[in-house]
Specification:
Layout: E1 6-9, H1 13-24, E2 33-36, E3 47-51, E4 62-66, E5 68-73, E6 76-81, E7 87-91, H2 92-103, E8 109-112, E9 124-127, E10 140-150, E11 160-164, E12 173-180, E13 185-194, H3 204-215, E14 221-232, E15 244-246, H4 262-274, H5 289-304, H6 309-316, H7 321-328, H8 334-341, H9 346-353
Parallel strand pairs: 1-2, 1-9, 2-8, 5-11, 9-15
Antiparallel strand pairs: 3-7, 4-7, 5-6, 10-13, 10-14, 11-12, 12-13
């Protein structure tokens, strides 16, 4: 079996982001790295979106940025500006191509499909694959998206729709999400915040067809791309080795109330790179504990009162846009946290706080 100084298990967003961060900062000139990833080819399979509250390495992979967005209830629409923190979308295909092309140039980086080819005791392990198979009875953000192309100009490409709750809820939390990349192309997603034990929520294709035809009033279009996924809205439980650190979603980089992960991964990668020479004794990078606490209260409300959530989300965005975006991006001050808390229905949240 081959031996390496560093081993990354999982060549997805977290594993590749870390490898790229180490490579471009010359941390692998005298060190070897193995990346274990079973996929045969890297192709577009995800769309990562976030408010740009920090700089990142992948500006050239951003396919669109917006400075305005909306959120909808059945009879109300709120329009919000995000001039100073534009909302960006990254095409995973461009992300993979950029990183793989760069890493292939480094003779100290090697890709493997089978973990059994590596001596796992030889180096420090960065693991992006969670240990446990988690129950469908826990909360997930699960979704399907279609990138559609219309035959004539239709979309306003300067504004995206973050949440449209004008749809059937079925005792869960359901909204649609539309990212217009041009006047004729957009990604439309159906998104549920619920457990995965209800098959009635999983007919994604029918939901999307109905929404595109009846809500967006688009009768003729072609589908150029589709994606499907499920993000755990709970802390991952892992079995940890002595010489191992969990990264990405497996390492707690997913914000539980929103599912946002991409920028957290970039910050974690930077932290590891800055401390790689003493990684065994380095403090693990974590999302601030206050967000886990607030998110758990929020998710308790979501579980117990899903019918109230559309109005709660709508009310959340009554705060200053900068405040809301900072809060959702783990960058809020104590004063900003309070302003968000005061927007929430106090009796409902206090009851779930005491549970």
């Amino acid at each position: 079996m081959k031996e390496f100084d560093y081993i990354i298990i999982g060549g997805g967003c977290a594993g590749l982001s870390l490898a790229y961060e180490l490579d471009i900062h010359n941390k692998l000139e005298n060190k070897t790295l193995a990346i274990i990833e079973p996929r045969k080819n890297y192709e577009r399979d995800k769309t990562w979106s976030f408010w740009k509250i920090i700089d990142h390495n992948f500006v050239d992979c951003v396919i669109k940025s917006w400075k305005d967005f909306s959120i909808n209830l059945p009879k109300k629409t709120k329009y919000i500006k995000c001039d100073h923190t534009p909302y960006q979308t990254i095409d995973s295909g461009l992300f993979y191509k950029k990183i793989i092309n760069k890493l292939r140039q480094n003779k100290n980086i090697h890709f493997f499909k089978n973990i059994n080819e590596i001596n796992m005791e030889s180096g420090y392990i960065f693991n992006s694959v969670p240990t446990a198979n988690h129950s469908k009875n826990l909360l997930w953000q699960h979704f399907m998206g279609l990138e559609i192309e219309t035959y004539k100009d239709f979309f306003d490409e300067e504004i995206f729709n973050l949440m449209d709750f004008n749809c059937e809820q079925k005792d869960a939390v359901h909204f649609f999400y539309t990212l217009p990349f041009s006047k004729t192309k957009a990604l439309v997603e159906t998104t549920w915040l619920s457990k995965l034990n209800n098959d009635d929520l999983l007919n994604y294709e029918d939901q999307l067809k109905n929404y595109i035809n009846n809500n967006l009033n688009i009768k003729k279009y072609k589908i150029s791309y589709s994606e499907k996924g499920a993000i755990p809205l709970f802390q991952q439980k892992n079995i940890k080795r002595v010489n191992e650190m969990y990264i990405g979603s497996a390492g707690g980089m997913t914000r539980l109330s929103t599912g946002y992960t991409f920028l957290n991964i970039q910050e974690q990668s930077k932290h590891i790179r800055e401390n790689i020479e003493n990684i065994e004794n380095t403090k693990i990078f974590k999302i601030n504990k206050k967000y886990n606490f607030l998110d758990n209260v929020f998710l308790n409300v979501l579980s117990n009162h899903p019918d109230k959530m559309p109005n709660i989300f709508f009310k959340l965005f009554e705060a200053q846009p900068k405040t809301v975006i900072n809060f959702l991006s783990n960058k809020s001050s104590f004063v900003e946290d309070l302003s968000i808390i005061f927007k929430m229905p106090k009796i409902v949240f206090l009851k779930n706080l005491l549970r």
